[in-house]
Amino acid sequence: MKKYPHHCTTSCYQHCLNVAYYNYKICRAFGLDAKAAARAGIVHDLFLYDWRTHAKLTKEHFHAMTHPRVALRNAKKYFDLNELEQEIILKHMWPLTVIPPKSWEAFIIGMTDKYCGFFEIADYYSEHFTPNWLHFPFGRIHVK
């Protein structure tokens, strides 16, 4: 996952790490299943391809709507996932994926995923367009 770019210069691995961390913190604060939220968060985008070139190679142009199933299939190959973890992975792109989440943990990952994606993109563009005093949650630290 470290070799696939995701949001600008953020790797798929770093994005999943960010989502897993915030998922854990939020779910723990609400008394939800934080462990399942973190486990699902770390593999929620385990699609193992560069989504920018995927459409050209496969003619599949709906990555945002199809990758949760691919990620779930890949995660099930490598890990034993409970029903909640599977739902979290499968529903993390709601409302783009039509069927809404049944659990709060699955709803929260959708919001966390969008939050992290926004700041990963903003962090990239902030180098040129924002003043030095404005800081983003992830700073400029990236896992190599």
From TrEMBL:
InterPro entries: HD_domain. Residues 13-93 form the HD domain. This is HD domain-containing protein. It comes from Lachnotalea glycerini.
